[in-house]
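anyone seen this seq b4? input:
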Amino acid sequence: MNRTYELMFIVRPDMTEEDLDKLISTLSGVVAPSGGSVQRVDKMGKRRLAYTVRRFHEGIYVLMVIEGGGPVIHELERRLRVTEPVIKFLTVRVDEEQKRLDKIKQLRDSKKKVSAQPVAPAAPVPAPAAAAEAPAAPAAEAPATA
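predicted toks r here
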């Protein structure tokens, strides 16, 4: 069963762009033969870490969105653990969250459609027969105050 995962990992700040591209292509190469697919890769650039990790205060962040099964993710995480330039990584399953957000969006859209429809003007109500026959009496005028 294919599920959607976000894999965020942080590599050393002194890693070159070529080495980073090679690491990403290696990880992507692991996903394809295992029956998964890489949906998106975002290089988020160098950022300051919230706390020191392995004596580093900065790191290069990379986000990969992967669709695949559990064995694919297990193999990716194993490779990230043994890859020396990777400081930290985190894998999050996002397909359930995406389903929940889609459901909320559908509910909002259905409420918008109902409230956005123009209200049809009501047909004029015929006056009762007794009120139509009686002559209209002028209303008592109240004294005007200045």
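The mean pLDDT is 85. The first strand starts at residue 3 and ends at 11. kinda curious what u guys think
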